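During data preparation, a discrete fold description was generated, as reproduced here:
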Amino acid sequence: MSDHYSIRFQKVYEEYSDKVYGYLLLLTGKKEVAEDLTQETFLRVYKHIHQFNGDSQIFTWIVKIARNVAIDHLRRRRRLRFFSLDKYVIESCQPSPVEIIVKGEKTSLLYKGIKSLKLNYQEVLILRKIKEFSIKETALILGWSESKVKITTSRAMAALKKELKRRGEIIEEII
């Protein structure tokens, strides 16, 4: 690989590795697995960075690779326990201890609700609502049409609200 691609890869790795790790941690719920999958993702990025043609944002392209790496991992394990978000920490600007507790409880309830949904609902909610990808970016990552992303997001939100209501949670305070 030429020096140009090596330098480009190094910049890409430095800029996006933590974000990819966070995404994979959301999907797997396990630090060690997320670390391994992040490394696998960037091995694939390194091997194929010369093929990136700029049709999308580079981060969108990398997350698509990360998603494929995670799916490959799940297929190897032959399990569909996709992720546990209870351990995921939400960053904020120095909240009070009470705010931390309240936000942590609400976040935990929200993630437990998401975890109970079917896999494609989990994925679309993570990408659209947690990682805040656009509809277009989400469509590229998942290999769906933009209309499928919109419809599935809407259905996933409805299913999440129904699940939270079933659990007796006050939806407006959580979502």
